[in-house]
Specification:
By secondary structure, the protein is an alpha+beta fold.
């Protein structure tokens, strides 16, 4: 755990983007311990990184764990459910978001290449461009075949940052006289997150074309083209858009056969979602009393979150630094408490040998995870939304005086067909109406539709009696009225496209955009609110 107090950007300028070689190590202060610092800082600042060895994917840090030792030799240990790897690090080079390492496997003498890429999308720009260009021609053929009598206009996948149009998507307009449809398609080579986000950019493209064609043609709606079997999230979200604002049409497009099949947007009866059971918080705290007492000695202000009957998490202002689990005791059939610590994917067992490292970690967080901490410090920058969430859950009524502070659940897991969503904050009003708080600390164009997604899941579970069945809101009678949706973000970090996107949500969704002061770390203060305005259509 050495080096977590020193971000990579704080390394000496002479080594920041230059090769760190064995010969340099012999003649300077660059030691195995220093290499361990570089590794720790890079990995802590890149939670979605991937490790590539000899051109092959070795680990994805979204699911893998690691530990680094710089004592005597720099040793990198990586593990996941599928595999385990230990490498001795000889060289390091940091450039362009890639940490290139020269490593040696135990029992072998020949060094080999290990690259850790901060960006999980490892495809080259040329390959992306070729795939998107090919898809653009394919989509044009399909449009002309499936919609005879209509012309394809404004076909493009070029980026347009001014209007928030991404090169990930191919956009076009189908037009016949004064009737038109906006079109957006995404190819099968793109990530699932890009597919899920297509509705956001589709709405913006449709709204833009309505403005551009005003007086010449009426843009009736939006046609979205998605890869087969990957449209579930988009379909669920589209079902909760304003039905009178536009015609929402979804299609699955098989790029090999060029077969195009329509999807039924209004059909939400087949939604696959599962709510986890509420945990017995008091019982878990008693079970982990020894671990809690040990952590409290060093960090009395640590926040304790019970994730399951066998695991609890410790955070400081929303930054997770340790967790305790029940693990099999050596030579026994009984379980024992084990504390693991680290930032991000880093994981170390807390014992006598690592106690000093743990103390250094906690001290570093306590010094910098403060309102007056340095914005360039890693501990200050990490997990800003969890920091904001921590402050809001302490007094949720600061967001709206109708909310009931006695029932506040944070990071509630709700599984759907293709992902594992985490509801930022789930609560209810004083009169028992469910309320969802979706939080963003930084500008995010997807805030409105991500909030819509969570609203739809909560509404489904509400209608099926899932909350009472799973132990939420014990002793509280909940209203059958649709949930309230609060979208919370710093005032200057609300994306300009949010107003457009919110106008297209279903009138059944009673939303409030809550803007808080920029200096929210010093105390959350609401500076402005915008509300849904009845059943008006954006037409």
């Amino acid at each position: 755990m050495v080096g977590l107090r020193f971000p990579v950007k704080g390394l000496p300028r002479s080594t920041r983007k230059t090769r760190i070689s064995s010969s340099i190590m012999q003649n300077s202060a660059i030691t195995p311990k220093y290499l361990a610092k570089v590794l720790e800082q890079f990995l802590a600042d890149a939670p979605q990184a991937v490790a590539m060895e000899d051109g092959e994917l070795l680990f994805d840090f979204a699911t893998a764990k690691y530990s680094v030792s710089g004592e005597g030799k720099c040793i990198l240990h990586l593990w996941s459910e599928e595999r385990n790897a230990v490498r001795r690090v000889l060289d390091a080079e940091l450039k362009g978001g890639i940490l290139r390492l020269s490593v040696v496997r135990f029992g072998q003498a020949q060094p080999r290449a290990l690259e850790i890429c901060a960006n999980p999308d490892r495809r080259k720009g040329a390959a992306k461009h070729a795939a998107r260009n090919q898809y653009q021609h394919l989509l044009e053929r399909v449009l002309l075949r499936e919609f005879p009598g209509m012309k394809v206009e404004h076909l493009s996948s070029s980026p347009d940052l001014e209007h928030s149009f991404s090169p990930v998507y191919t956009r076009a307009v189908l037009r016949a006289g004064q009737s038109a449809f906006a079109v957006l398609g995404v190819n099968a080579e793109e990530t699932q997150s890009s597919v899920d986000a297509v509705l956001t950019f589709g709405i913006l493209w449709m709204d833009y074309q309505r403005q551009q064609l005003a007086g010449r043609a009426h843009v009736e709606g939006l046609k979205l083209f998605l890869p087969p079997g990957r449209a579930e999230i988009v379909r669920q979200r589209a079902a909760h858009l304003h039905p009178e604002a536009a015609k929402w049409q979804l299609y699955e497009l098989d790029e090999r056969s060029e077969i195009c099949a329509p999807l039924d947007v209004p059909d939400t009866g087949n939604i696959v979602t599962r709510l986890t059971h509420a945990v017995d918080v008091e019982g878990a705290r008693l079970r982990f009393a020894a671990s809690i007492a040990r952590i409290r000695v060093l960090a009395p202000a640590a926040e304790i979150t019970v994730e399951s009957a066998s695991e609890i998490v410790f955070r400081l202002f929303g930054l997770e630094f340790a967790r305790a689990r029940l693990t099999p005791a050596s030579g026994s059939f009984r379980n024992a408490e084990t504390i693991f610590f680290g930032i991000g994917s880093a994981e170390y067992v807390l014992d006598e040998n690592s106690e000093v490292l743990f103390r250094e970690l906690v001290q570093g967080i306590l010094e910098q995870r403060q309102p007056y901490g340095s914005p360039t410090n890693l501990f200050f920058r990490l997990a800003p939304e969890r920091w904001l969430e921590t402050l809001i859950t302490r007094e949720v009524r600061m967001i709206d005086e109708r909310l009931d502070g006695r029932f506040v659940y944070s990071q509630v897991p709700a599984f759907s067909a293709s992902d594992r969503a985490m509801l930022d904050v789930l609560t209810c009003t004083l009169d028992g109406r469910l309320a969802i708080l979706e939080l963003k600390a930084n500008e995010d164009i997807h805030l409105p539709l991500q909030g819509l997604d969570y609203w739809a899941r909560v509404r489904w579970h509400q209608q099926h009696g899932e909350f009472a069945r799973n132990g939420y809101f014990a002793g509280r009678e909940l209203s059958s009225a649709p949930p309230l949706l609060f979208l919370v973000a710093p005032a200057l970090r609300v994306h300009p496209a949010s107003d457009v996107l919110l106008r297209y949500l279903s009138p059944r969704i009673e939303w409030t955009l809550v803007q808080v002061a920029e200096r929210w770390r010093h105390g959350v203060r609401v500076v402005n609110k915008k509300h849904a305005k009845g059943n008006q259509s954006p037409r």
